[in-house]
Amino acid sequence: MDIPYTVEVRRDTGLTNGKIGIWLFLASEVMLFGALFASYILIRVGAPSWPRGDTLLDVPMATLNTIVLIASSVTMVMAWASLMRRRFGAFRMYMGGTILLGLVFLVVKYFEYSHHIHLGELPRTNNFLAVYYTLTGLHGLHVFGGMMVNAYFWGPGSKLWKTNPVWFTNRVEHSGLFWHFVDLVWIFLFPTLYLL
Amino acid sequence: MSDHAADMTSDHAVDIDKHVRIYISVFVALMILTVITVAISYLDLSVPVAVTVALVVATIKGSLVACYFMHLISEKKLIYWVLAVTVAFFIALMALPVITHSNGYWIA
Lengths: 196, 108
What we know:
Radius of gyration of chain A: 19 Å
Order of helices and strands of chain B: HHHEE
Strand content of chain A: under 5%
Strand content of chain B: under 5%
Shape of chain B: flat
Radius of gyration of chain B: 19 Å
Helix content of chain B: over 70%
Structural class of chain A: mainly alpha
Distance between the termini of chain B: 49 Å
Largest interface: A-B, 57 and 54 residues
Strand order of the largest sheet of chain B: 1-2
Oligomer: heterodimer
CATH topology of chain A: Four Helix Bundle (Hemerythrin (Met), subunit A)
Low-confidence stretches of chain A: none
Order of helices and strands of chain A: HHHHHHH
Helix content of chain A: over 70%
Largest sheet of chain A: none
CATH superfamily of chain A: Cytochrome c oxidase, subunit III, four-helix bundle
Shape of chain A: elongated
Number of strands of chain A: 0
Low-confidence stretches of chain B: none
Number of strands of chain B: 2
Number of domains of chain A: 1
Mean pLDDT of chain A: 95
CATH class of chain A: Mainly Alpha
Number of domains of chain B: 2
CATH architecture of chain A: Up-down Bundle
């Protein structure tokens, strides 16, 4: 049985099912990260003292990662725009760029983590590090998950372009919405963890 | 913009070209705001002021991403409703630490 409303919009919602589905999923993601942010605020305001992030964390590395993730959002939206222009080659290039930038983000994160672990700064060391590892770890998992989905659309999943280009374009748009959300979360994580 | 993929006509391609120019402008704006975010952290601001300024800049950046990259600026009404409910719950969640921590003392 075919999945309904993948290409044509539903009359009642004015949307494809995939579009409403990804937005409902992102709403649940807002609450997931929201719960962790609220916990962070609770722990921080309740602590007798709290270190500034830049005294313990590597701000230049995190700034680099911010630039990398924002750039990846641009390549992601350009990948989708390329499909809208029916330029599959350009889509492959931009989507490949998005995946590579995601990989750069995770490699930088690996160096950050390994530096802290080398110094014996672990989640159990103090509340600041526990919050840091939890929030950046969950965010890193989202980056990894987004990369996997994007890699699927770059590779085997792109076969759909030949048989149903509109559906494929919609799927890339939905994947992009998740990727931009991951970027959006980092935009808030960066100042709250590293700079304040 | 939500139905872009459902209608890939030549008129739409022209529309997309216009949007690509906007994406580039948003990218430049986000880079400038990132520099501002880091620069502000070097100013000797009190914690409440620093938190407020950092969150205001982050909110502007986040809004640019949501409005233009996620196409929220021209989305269907149902998506706005979903997000309105989400924002209401998110605000309630963020308010919890504030209402339970008054004047430096925890409310039992």
